[in-house]
Amino acid sequence: MLLITSRGAGRWVIPKGWIEDGASAAQAAAQEAFEEAGITGLIDETPLGSFEYSKRLGSGAKKLAVVEVFALRVEKQRKRWPERAERRFKWMDVPSALNLLEYPGMAALFQTLVEIHGNVRNYTYLNGALGGADLAGI
């Protein structure tokens, strides 16, 4: 499974971002996967589940973000992508990923992916929709 680092603190996370007008949560997730990690592939339109976290906005204010998580079957990772210079990426097994992630609700979602898809080496999790107001993710 693929994890990337956040731009600010450099924490290991799954790709996520805002949902653009007219896009579904799954489409936003796939777009963020490309922009943040350079990956393309087939996204499952059905979310695996969701989790919440406190999102710090540019103003410094915090906002509760609800994130829908989607699975993406990775077909290709490009050599160049928009945020390549701003992030690191790492392919790893699920137990290793669980040790690096901070979000409490993620363990159950990873287990769901394993149950549905079996071997997850060629999958990444995408936060599909940061909700509440305006966030989206993969």
Describe it for me?
This protein has helices spanning 25-37, 94-100, 106-117; strands spanning 2-5, 12-13, 16-18, 39-43, 49-56, 62-77, 89-91, 123-131, 135-137. With 138 residues, the chain is an alpha+beta fold. It has one domain: Nucleoside Triphosphate Pyrophosphohydrolase (Alpha-Beta Complex). The strands form 3 sheets. Strands 4, 5, 6 and 8 form a 4-stranded antiparallel β-sheet that branches. Strands 2-1-7 form a 3-stranded antiparallel β-sheet, with no helix packed on it. Strands 3-9 form a two-stranded antiparallel ribbon. A hairpin with a 5-residue loop joins strand 5 and strand 6. The longest helix is centred in the N-terminal third of the chain and has 13 residues, at 25-37. The chain is globular. The relative contact order is 0.32. The model is unreliable at 128-138 (pLDDT under 50).
Distance between the termini: 13 Å
Quaternary organisation of the protein chains: single chain
CATH class: Alpha Beta
The CATH superfamily appears as Nucleoside Triphosphate Pyrophosphohydrolase
* Rg, Cα atoms, Å: 14 Å
Q: In terms of structural class, how would the helical and strand content be classed?
A: alpha+beta
Query: Roughly what is the average pLDDT, rounded to an integer?
Result: 78
- The domain tally reads 1
* CATH-scheme architecture: Alpha-Beta Complex
Task: Give the helices and strands as they follow along the chain.
Answer: EEEHEEEEHHEE
**Tell me about the biggest sheet?**
4 strands, antiparallel
Q: From the 3D structure, determine the CATH topology.
A: Nucleoside Triphosphate Pyrophosphohydrolase
Q: Given the structure, what is the number of helices?
A: 3
